Amino acid sequence: MTNDGTARMQMVFHLGVHGTDGDRLLKTLLNNRDWLLRNETEIVSPARHRGLLEEAMMALNGAAATPEMQQIMLDAMLETEAPQRVVMSSPTLLGTPARAVSREGLYPQIGSRSAALAGLFADAHAEFFVAIRNPAVLLSKLTHLNNGGYAAMMQGADPRNLRWRDTIQRLVRSAQGRRVVIWCHEDVPLIWPELVRLIGDIPPEAPLSGALLYMQELLGEAGMARLNAELGGRDQLSIAQRREIQTAILQDQLPPDAADEEINLPGWTQDLVDQITRDYHADVAEIAVLPGVEFVLP
């Protein structure tokens, strides 16, 4: 609450990461724009904030924006008057793909970037949403996004030292009690509706367009026809029941190796992929119980 008793604006930053969501979250939220606007939530597309936020962060150099500067940025970004919740979704909020890896680990700047983003709107309440994924797969995606190739991207870093545990700990420390929501990209097909509702603050009883987006991509028309028939024939399904149905259909419709990702990185062996995958699972277990983190489980 502010000094005059009004609610503080919520600034919501979906930070990505690269090689996970693409622009699916942004598109899904925009497909629900009418409901969101009626409920004082505005979705700001990257085209309206990218250059603006970068210039402001450079100018402030870690300092908090004045109320006047905050208002100037809001006036430039927003299309509605005084929304209560403002959502931005873009991996560029974490910088370029070239900054994703260093000898210090994965996304070494996540702490300073998130603190700087919160400082841009110091009078609002910031929230941070981040997807993580197996570093072996993430590095494959980042290599394609990075013009310099694998060696330039790695900057001499040992891939075994790229631990999500350390990255998320940096984020939580910099968040200083602000909301931090984390999930595994591998779980997204099952948790997608809950993620969209969390980020948009859309209650369970409100209609949601695009709730089965990831399932549709995986199953195609025939599989979706079966899923819709299963879901449509049952009233008042719980989240757990819906996920059970989805899991059964995925297992039945998709070949066992459908979710496998080919890792073709210089110098990598299957043993290295297996080790990094084991470390990733260990990190996920640690992050899920980390104080200050809301972890979305399937």
The domain count comes to 1
The CATH class is: Alpha Beta
* H/E series: EHHEHHEEEHEHHHEHHHHE
Largest sheet report: 6 strands, parallel
The CATH architecture designation is 3-Layer(aba) Sandwich
Helical percentage: 40-55%
Structural class of the helix and strand makeup?
Answer: alpha/beta
Shape: globular
Structure notes:
This protein has 298 residues and is of the alpha/beta class. The chain has one domain (10-208, 276-295): Rossmann fold, CATH 3.40.50. It is built from twelve helices and eight strands. The chain has helices at 24-31, 33-38, 46-60, 67-77, 110-120, 135-145, 149-154, 164-175, 188-200, 213-232, 239-253, 270-288; strands at 10-14, 41-44, 85-89, 101-102, 105-106, 125-132, 179-184, 294-295. A six-stranded parallel beta sheet has the order 2-3-1-6-7-8, sandwiched between helices. A two-stranded antiparallel sheet has the order 4-5. Strand 4 (101-102) and strand 5 (105-106) form a beta hairpin. The two termini are 33 Å apart. The mean pLDDT is 91. This is Sulfotransferase family protein.
Please describe the structure with a list of short key phrases separated by commas or semicolons:
Rossmann fold; two-stranded antiparallel sheet; 8 strands; alpha/beta; Sulfotransferase family protein
Summarize the structure.
The protein contains 12 helices and 8 strands. By secondary structure, it is α/β, with parallel strands linked by helices. It has a single domain (10-208, 276-295), classed as Rossmann fold (3-Layer(aba) Sandwich).
Write the layout of secondary structure elements.
Blueprint (H helix, E strand, L loop, with lengths): L9 E5 L9 H8 L1 H6 L2 E4 L1 H15 L6 H11 L7 E5 L11 E2 L2 E2 L3 H11 L4 E8 L2 H11 L3 H6 L9 H12 L3 E6 L3 H13 L12 H20 L6 H15 L16 H19 L5 E2 L3
